[in-house]
Specification:
By secondary structure, this protein is an alpha/beta fold. The protein folds into 2 domains: about 260 residues, 3-Layer(aba) Sandwich (Rossmann fold), CATH 3.40.50.2000; about 170 residues, Rossmann fold (3-Layer(aba) Sandwich). It contains 18 helices and 13 strands. A 7-stranded parallel beta sheet has the order 3-2-1-4-5-6-7, with helices on both faces. The protein has a 6-stranded parallel beta sheet with strand order 10-9-8-11-12-13, with helices on both faces. α14 links the parallel β11 and β12. α2 crosses α8. The longest helix has 21 residues. It is globular and about 65 Å long. The chain starts with 10 loop residues before the first strand and ends with a helix. Bound molecules: uridine-5'-diphosphate-xylopyranose. The site of uridine-5'-diphosphate-xylopyranose (UDX) has 26 residues, from α1, α13 and α14. The site of uridine-5'-diphosphate-xylopyranose has 26 residues, from α1, α13 and α14.
Length: about 450
């Protein structure tokens, strides 16, 4: 992809939200802008601080986040929103102090902060610094989030599950919205989303890890509703080969096993860096994989099964049943796995990074979304781009896996997925929309 540098010595300060699904795109963006000639400072929290040794070209500044002092916050899926809300308060002063110190050394052309760091807009305003938002999820997602207050007023967050699309938000259903709000921290989530939207609209611009051709209709609505310059320049990970911003160590020992498997025969299973499941869900997944009789590579993150360190909850007889057919690892080099010719389908929770990574490799998906933006991403995968199937509660997992790996339906999904993959490549190539957006972004920052 074209990332030609232009002479320019302006410094940018980037501030990622400290979770894997947000650190990855922010550090990829840092690489893209560095290749365009900008100097990069990464401001980061102590919590989940990125591995600096992988980025000698950047300057890193650490700020206190208040988490280590607060003994009551035990991080997991259910407490992500309270943690983010907490840090949006606890980081205000440390972030401001850090910027003041940086500004004494040299000017900052602009701040680029995650949309969920909503407090950074008022800090930027108080220091007269322009702030550009990085939104790490899809454009379609933010439109659904923007409609949440109305949906709440109209009772959509309370009603029983309905499968029909919500008027004006099709193909999103009330069932999807209820999954977005599937936990007891609903109020905290509403507060977070509305502050995120308000302060995104107040920013000097929005960078999106998506591309126009994928989300044409959302793009035109956003261009009208969010009256700030929009730069859909993604997918970021395509500009540079998988650069390591991984917080967990990647296991590569299974690669020789993967190399021995036939083309498009392996089910790759991973539910990202946050999702947690209970023991029953884990056992069901295990038997679903075993009964499908297909080959699989399964990422089980330590701690992702409640009450287990790692694999203690695997059902008895499972290992003997699957034998050489299956491989379980703690964390994988996911982009490399998805690009492998042996991978036939991705069973995913549809975090936005995973969804984009799958699209970029033309791999169809089995969608099991948990929360956040995932139900929205999954609905687009199954109903709009038609490159995956939803695996809902009560469905027979083994049957769904076979549908995608073996049936004609799976082949058609793969065809559509390949054509999306071609669109990605055209968009990122010279004269393509993402490529042009990146040029526009660089020009825009230089005018700030
Ligand atoms: C979170 C939210 O859950 C997600 O919905 C939101 O869009 C971003 O923030 P996460 O759940 O971790 O992210 O999912 P995802 O967005 O898919 O990001 C996971 C990242 O970890 C991907 O870039 C993926 O390549 C990487 N990964 C995952 C690995 O490198 N190895 C693995 O074994 C699994």
């Amino acid at each position: 992809m074209s990332t030609e540098s232009r002479p320019n010595d302006r410094r940018l300060a980037l501030f990622p939200l400290p979770f894997q699904g947000h650190i990855n795109p922010m550090l990829q963006l840092a690489n893209i802008l560095h290749a365009k000639g900008f100097k990069i400072t990464i401001i980061h929290t102590v919590f989940n601080s990125p591995n600096q040794s992988n980025y000698p070209q950047f300057t890193f500044k650490s700020i206190s986040d208040g988490l280590s002092e607060s003994k009551n916050i035990n991080f997991n899926l259910d407490t992500t929103n309270p943690v983010v809300n907490f840090m949006n308060r606890s980081c205000i002063e440390p972030f401001k102090d850090c910027l003041l110190r940086l500004l004494k050394e040299e000017p900052i052309a602009c701040l680029i902060t995650d949309a969920l760091w909503h407090f950074t807009q008022s800090v930027a305003d108080s220091l007269n610094l322009p702030r550009i938002v990085l939104r790490t999820s899809s454009m379609s997602c933010i439109l659904v989030y923007a409609a949440i207050p109305i949906l709440n007023e109209n009772g959509y967050l309370k009603t029983t599950i309905q499968e029909d699309p919500i008027p004006d938000l099709a193909p999103i259903t009330n069932k999807d919205i209820l999954k977005v709000f599937n936990d007891e921290f609903k109020e905290g989530k509403l507060e977070l989303i509305s502050s995120m939207i308000k302060n995104t609209k107040a920013a000097s611009g929005i960078i999106w890890n998506t591309f126009k051709e994928l989300e044409e209709s959302a793009f035109s609505v956003i261009s009208q509703d969010f009256c700030v310059p929009n730069f859909p320049i993604g997918p970021f990970h395509k500009y540079f080969p998988a650069y390591s911003s991984s917080l967990l160590e990647q296991d590569r020992s299974f690669m020789s096993w993967l190399d021995q498997q036939p083309d498009r025969s392996v089910v790759y299973v991973s539910f990202g860096s946050i999702a947690q499941m209970d023991e029953v869900g884990f056992t069901d997944m295990a038997w679903g994989l075993a009964n499908s009789k297909q080959r699989f590579l399964w990422v089980v993150r330590p701690g992702s099964v409640s009450g287990s360190e790692w694999l203690e909850s695997l059902p008895e007889g499972f290992i003997e049943e699957v034998g050489e057919r299956g491989c379980i690892v703690k964390w994988a080099p996911q982009q490399e796995v998805l690009a492998h010719r042996a991978v036939g389908v991705f069973w995913t929770h549809n975090g936005w990074n995973s969804t984009l990574e799958s699209i970029c490799e033309g791999v169809p998906m089995i969608c099991s979304p948990y929360s956040y933006d995932q139900p929205i991403n999954a609905r687009y995968v199954t109903d709009v781009w038609r490159v995956g199937v939803m695996l809902d509660n009560g469905m027979e997992t083994a049957r769904v896996i076979k549908r995608v790996i073996e049936d004609k339906e799976g082949g058609e999904m793969r065809e559509r997925s390949k054509s999306l993959q071609e669109k990605v490549n055209l968009s990122l190539g010279k004269g393509g929309s993402a490529n042009q957006s990146l040029e526009n972004l660089v020009d825009y920052i230089l005018t700030l």
